[in-house]
Design a protein that fits this description.
Elements lengths: L3 E2 L2 H9 L7 E8 L13 H9 L10 E4 L9 E4 L5 H4 E10 L1 H12 L10 E9 L4 E8 L5 H11 L22 H28 L1 H18 L20 E9 H11 L3 H19 L9 E8 L13 E8 L6 H17 L2 H10 L6 H11 L7 E7 L6 E2 L2 E9 L8 E8 L2 E9 L6 H22 L7
Parallel strand pairs: 5-6, 9-11, 11-14
Antiparallel strand pairs: 1-4, 2-7, 2-13, 3-4, 6-7, 8-15, 9-10, 12-13, 14-15
Helix pairs in contact: 1-12, 7-11, 8-9, 8-13, 9-10, 9-13
Length: 475
């Protein structure tokens, strides 16, 4: 029997999860609120649930839960949740009107600190009424085992509309399939492992039969792996790597104009991602300086997830990720020199196929026994190789709507691990980069310093770009 089985990479996020380090991604969204309320002034939560439920046939895993294989003999599988309840997953809460920005952020922090219930599908949507200006908040939680950044954007475009007129799909009958018994699942998993072992052996024989092609492949993989180990293997020790000591969080937000980022790219070259990373680096320099940790020679190691998802994988959930490991000279005081160094580093890593090498390493998780994979995932909480995760996801550059209300802002969130107490996520939407900063509250009484530093760093880069190429203001 074929099962909808988690990949090794997807399963690793389940192994990584701890009470103090939930492994879900999320977002804080602000929507125009008028259309969410009926003539009686009450929030139309029933209609919202009907709208979301009508589209779940497009994303079937949103009605599935995780089932583990006995004895950890294989990766878990997705099974239909026979007690699926849309009311559990689409919720309504409120702030005392008029709810302020700081109160919305505090609510977001509390909700994101809680683990998702693994006995149910691993997602939640929280609508928040009572915001100042009559707006409505939307707090999203989706386990990283279910989505990566790109597929998360796919899901959002299914749950949202491209026009102010909401469309409710025709009902599609859903007949939940019964889960296999634990014994049946164990037997089928063991049989599948034997078949996969045979496939691996056949592949090895084919490689031996074509030595030239094998040699080329080995040489290419060696170049990719050498790029992964480029520079110092161990990241410098900074306060960014102090252990997460509790469950409470802080969440900060920054917005940057896409036109400004394009102006910097036009003036100084490189890619949009290079400019974004340089702006974040400028903010980190301000923060570390305020903590007495900044040294002119300080170079931090940043893990930048890279999607290897192609157009044929549109709306396929799970994780299809590789990575760039970028050395970022936060100690360099000149913002243009800092940007140029980042451009040179990322160009060199791509030339040497580092993302492919990282994808190859991540792909090895498919051949790891689940018990060993669990142990390896736990070791990640103590890794000494990176100081920060910074992910940049391209979103739609046109307005999206929910229940007729336009989406005004959307700030993404990536989870923390045991010794990474800050996560930086960037989503471009409708001409604006929305930067979400998730931090361990116990380690970050000064998150505002980082927010202001990032904002000022982008403003400085933009001014320098306009000074160099005045016409870039119109780029």
């Amino acid at each position: 029997m074929g099962y909808d089985r988690l990949s090794g990479l997807d399963a690793s996020f389940l192994h990584l999860e701890r009470l103090e380090t939930p492994m879900h991604v999320g977002a804080l969204t602000v929507l125009e609120g008028g259309s969410f309320f009926g003539p009686d002034g009450r929030f139309r939560i029933g209609e919202v649930r009907d709208l979301v439920a009508s589209r779940l046939h497009r994303i079937p895993r949103f009605r599935k839960r995780v089932m583990s294989v006995p004895l950890e003999a294989g990766q878990p599988i997705w099974i239909d949740d026979e007690r699926f309840d849309i009311g559990y997953h689409v919720r309504l809460t409120a702030l005392p009107a008029p709810g302020s920005r700081s109160e919305l952020l505090a609510l977001f922090e509390r909700i994101q600190a809680q683990l998702l219930d693994r006995t149910r599908p691993l997602w939640e949507l929280w609508f928040v009424e009572g915001l100042e200006g009559g707006n409505v908040g939307l707090i999203q939680k989706t386990h990283h085992a279910l989505v990566d950044g790109i597929s998360g954007v796919d899901v959002a475009t299914v749950l949202l509309d491209f026009t102010p007129e909401p469309t409710v799909d025709e009902p599609v009958p859903w007949d939940p399939q019964p889960a296999p018994t634990a014994a049946r699942l164990l037997i089928d998993t063991a049989r599948g492992m034997v078949e996969n072992t045979g496939a691996v052996a056949r592949t090895a024989r084919n490689v031996l039969e074509v030595p030239r092609r094998a040699a080329e492949r080995i040489g290419s993989l060696a170049r990719q792996m050498s790029a992964l180990a480029d520079g110092a293997l161990v990241a410098p020790k900074t306060s960014l790597n102090n252990p997460v000591v509790g469950r409470t969080r802080r969440f900060g937000t920054v917005t940057v104009s896409l036109d400004d980022v394009k102006a910097v790219r036009k003036a100084f070259g490189g890619t949009i991602n290079d400019v974004v990373l340089a702006g974040v680096a400028g903010g980190l320099a301000r923060l570390l300086d305020s903590r007495g940790e900044l040294d002119p020679d300080l170079v931090i190691k940043v893990f930048c997830p890279v999607s290897v998802r192609d157009d044929s994988e549109h709306m396929k959930l799970g994780n299809r990720l590789s990575a760039l490991f970028v050395s970022v000279p936060v100690g360099e005081p000149d913002p243009i020199v800092r940007l140029s160094a980042i451009q040179a580093k990322t160009a060199d890593l791509k030339e040497r196929e580092q993302p492919i090498g990282a994808a190859a390493l991540l792909g090895l998780s498919e051949y790891a026994a689940p018990t060993l994979l669990g142990l390896a995932s736990r070791l990640i909480h103590h890794q000494p190789f990176i100081n920060l995760v910074c992910t940049n996801v391209p979103g739609p550059q046109f307005p999206l709507y929910c229940m007729g209300g336009r989406m005004l802002e959307a700030y993404p969130m990536v989870p923390l691990t045991r010794n990474l107490n800050l996560g930086v996520a960037v989503l471009s939407y409708c001409g604006t980069f929305h930067v979400g900063l998730l931090a361990d509250r116990n380690q970050w009484p000064d998150l505002e310093v980082l927010e202001a530093g990032i904002d000022d760093a982008f403003a400085e880069l933009t001014k320098l770009a306009h000074d160099r190429l005045p016409e870039s203001a119109d780029a």
